[in-house]
C-alpha cells in the first residue's frame, strides 16, 4: 500500500544545505555592515547585542565596516587595547563586550 501522495521528498544534499546557510550568513553580514557603515547601527550596539550574524565575525572586520575606519585603523585600535584581530564577537565574554563597547 504505497500511496504516491504520502511520499516524502528527500532532503537536499548536505553540501547544498551548507551552501544555503553560508549564503544566508553572507547576506545578513552584508546588511549588518551596510547599516554600520551608514551610521544607522552603532558598533557598540552590535558588540553588546551580539546578533547571530555577527557572532562569528571578527572584531576587526566589524570595526573596519564603520565609516572612516579601515583595516589599518582597526588593527591599530585592537593592538592598543590588547585584543587580537582574529577574535570573534561571539567569543568575547560579557565583560569584554562591555569594555569594548564603552571605548569604541
Instruction: Supply the CATH architecture.
Output: Orthogonal Bundle
**Helix count, per DSSP?**
6
User: Which structural class matches the secondary elements?
Assistant: mainly alpha
**Overall average pLDDT:** 93
- Portion in helices: 55-70%
Polypeptide structure, described:
61% of the residues lie in helices and 0% in strands. It has 104 residues and is an all-alpha fold.
Give a short summary of the structure.
The chain is mainly alpha-helical and 104 residues long. Helix content is 61%, strand content 0%.
Features:
single chain, 104 residues, 6 helices, 61% helix, Helicase, Ruva Protein, domain 3, mainly alpha
Please write out the topology:
Blueprint: H1 14-38, H2 43-49, H3 52-55, H4 59-64, H5 71-81, H6 94-103
Helix pairs in contact: 2-6
Amino acid at each position: 500500500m504505497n500511496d504516491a501522495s504520502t511520499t516524502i521528498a528527500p532532503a537536499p544534499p548536505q553540501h547544498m544545505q551548507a551552501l544555503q546557510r553560508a549564503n544566508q550568513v553572507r547576506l545578513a553580514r552584508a546588511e549588518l555592515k551596510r547599516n554600520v557603515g551608514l551610521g544607522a547601527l552603532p558598533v557598540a550596539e552590535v558588540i553588546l547585542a551580539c546578533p547571530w550574524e555577527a557572532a562569528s565575525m571578527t572584531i576587526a572586520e566589524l570595526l573596519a565596516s564603520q565609516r572612516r575606519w579601515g583595516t589599518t585603523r582597526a588593527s591599530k585600535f585592537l593592538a592598543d587595547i590588547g585584543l587580537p584581530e582574529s577574535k570573534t564577537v561571539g567569543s568575547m565574554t560579557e565583560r569584554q563586550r562591555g569594555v569594548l563597547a564603552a571605548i569604541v
